[in-house]
């Protein structure tokens, strides 16, 4: 009897097999690459946090910030510091201490301490111990002795790996006796860093050093003194559009304030504020006060305009501010477009006044304060373009974006900024 042969084209079966393999790879390879990217992102952010902690220690010892990553790493490689024991924290669950004491016990230092362990001495006493991560095992011991006249019970607050708190409970009053070890001197790199000191300076993705900038607060000051002259002169505010607008804005502000004062004092005007007549009366008052202000000016009358402003920037930009009077002037006195100012500028009394108003101006950097450090991931947009390889193109996996920055202690990837 003849054996039946399977039906179907061998070529078709081969195509189906290839498609199945491609489908499996299309799922497995991108997933694997995304996991690797997530791990590199997490690793790099930990390294930037290590650099930040190292820079804080550098500043504490040397009394200044530095933008040199090499200087920070070299310093932290040899520095030592006095380290005390980690501390417990507690919260009482019962309102009145005494009978049936219950405590939630934890620790604030989650960077060095991994968990709380306990050992029962007797039924009515136990020892709580803070367990540091293996990297920080040289830290002094931190223990609490808990005793009571009744049995003492301890258990984890929640059955979750991320919950490190424990609950201590007794039917009687609970007595706590702290037992902390003496402070010790440790290598700073073994206490402040989460990774090896020689690796923290390099981004694991592009293998380039992290970028550091010293952040500064630059205090700017601008002073303009104007004087009314008897007759027109060539050296007046006419030659400077910004100063004309600035002086005019001062007159406009005074007139608006005076107008609002009158409106607030007149209840009849207040009651008709939604009417068209109210707007007309208010405009009439404004122009009356504005024109009156200008008509009061006499030769030798002076007007002083001054402004201060703080600019937060990097130390590299200090030269761009120092001595650059035009930039400081724009930062302090530049006004946005304003149709009313343009309208006031065309009034006859304004056109007559400005050719008789001389001015002196001073713009300077009066103070520079160092406020912190910015630590940036070195990944650029160009890296993302050049790093796209054959596998990336096939499976549509892009290189990870910039991992973020730490600016004055604020982590760009943290929700608690």
Protein architecture, described:
The structure is a single chain. The protein has a five-stranded antiparallel sheet with strand order 12-11-13-14-15. The chain has a four-stranded antiparallel sheet with strand order 2-3-8-7, with no helix packed on it. A four-stranded antiparallel sheet has the order 4-5-6-9, with no helix packed on it. It has three domains: 12-80 and 194-210 and 377-411, no CATH class; 85-182, Immunoglobulin-like; 216-373, no CATH class. By secondary structure, it is of the alpha+beta class. The longest helix is centred in the N-terminal third of the chain and has 53 residues, at 10-62. The chain contains twelve helices and 15 strands.
The main β sheet shows up as: 5 strands, antiparallel
Number of helices: 12
Low-confidence stretches: none
Number of domains: 3
Radius of gyration: 36 Å
* Helix proportion range: 25-40%
Provide the β-strand percentage band. 25-35%
Backbone structural class: alpha+beta
Write the layout of secondary structure elements.
Elements: H1 10-62, H2 69-78, E1 80-83, E2 89-92, E3 102-106, E4 113-122, E5 125-132, E6 142-148, E7 152-156, E8 166-170, E9 174-180, E10 184-187, H3 189-192, E11 211-228, H4 241-265, H5 267-271, H6 276-296, E12 302-314, H7 318-321, H8 325-333, H9 339-345, H10 348-353, E13 357-376, H11 381-386, H12 390-395, E14 405-407, E15 410-411
Antiparallel strand pairs: 1-10, 2-3, 3-8, 4-5, 5-6, 6-9, 7-8, 11-12, 11-13, 13-14, 14-15
